Amino acid sequence: MIEQTTISIAALIATIITVWALLKIKKHGLAYISCRKNHMAHGCCHDLRIDETSTYSEEELSLYCIGNLHVGKFGGTLNTLGTGIDAAERTSMLLQDFGIDNRNRAIKKLKWLSTAPSQLTFHFAYEAYLKGKEGENWLRNSKELADSKELCDECIMQMKKLKRQYKEIMNAGIADSEYELGLLGVIAWDAGQLNFLSRACMEQGYINKDECMICLDAAYKMSHEAFSNWKDFAHSYALGFALYGDATCMAYMAEQLLNAKQSPWSYIKWE
């Protein structure tokens, strides 16, 4: 049963692929990169954590760290294969935030993320946003959405979120214009979730390491086919988060990950 599931994930993903002074507090081998107090007060992020005993190569970390905006948000470790999130907190997070509490739900979610679902809806939502008042009617009359009312409704909802969040997204520095917003898209959000959840699900025992690595490879390729540098990837990732939460906090955390000396995003080459 496990082997069959692994093969199905591999087959599906193979198809999809072809389309922040630093304050360090040492404790138990971990270095903590401090977030500013005003961001912490708003629940924006935990202190970013580094495992100073980690021996992973840069090549390995380039694969593992794609989901680090999620890892940072949930207080995990930035330079390890495992997320480093406390087991009880991880269990709660997987269930409450992602609806995952067993193997079947984990695999279903990972398969779904491998299809870059948020990027699909963002494509339509962005085009509708540019049409202003006619955007919702354009979506409802789209032939490409005619066969799925659920998808159409999701696109309309994301268009409305984009309208509500637009000024904050611009003020946060995620994008400089409507045009850049469209170029960024949110595929990094999909890839980041796929990476992060596969690692968390492996730690939880819902999938095995081989299955996790398949997902990590997919998330890596998804990201590197769409972007040519960490900055654009990070801004797309933050944009995806911004449509569901605080754009300012997510943009700030992305800058932390890009600029903090011990963060893998600051020293690993994008290749």
Description:
The chain is mainly α and 271 residues long. It is built from 15 helices and three strands. It has a three-stranded antiparallel β-sheet with strand order 1-2-3, with no helix packed on it. A hairpin with a 2-residue loop joins strand 1 and strand 2 (30-33). The longest helix has 23 residues, at 149-171. The protein starts with a helix and ends with a helix.
Uncertain stretches of 5 or more adjacent residues: 1-8, 11-43
* Discrete helix count: 15
Q: What is the C-alpha radius of gyration, as a whole number of Å?
A: 18 Å
What integer is the average pLDDT?
85
Structural class: mainly alpha
First-last Cα distance: 36 Å
DSSP E strands, number: 3
- Overall, the morphology is globular
Brief rundown of the structure:
Helices cover 64% and strands 4% of the residues. By secondary structure, it is mainly alpha-helical.
Write the layout of secondary structure elements.
Blueprint: H1 2-17, E1 26-27, E2 30-33, H2 37-41, E3 48-51, H3 58-64, H4 68-73, H5 87-98, H6 103-113, H7 117-130, H8 135-140, H9 149-171, H10 178-184, H11 187-204, H12 209-226, H13 230-242, H14 247-259, H15 264-267
Helix pairs in contact: 1-12, 5-11, 6-11, 7-9, 11-12, 11-13, 13-14
Q: What distinguishing features does this structure have?
A:
15 helices, 271 residues, 64% helix, disordered N terminus, mainly alpha, 3-stranded antiparallel beta sheet
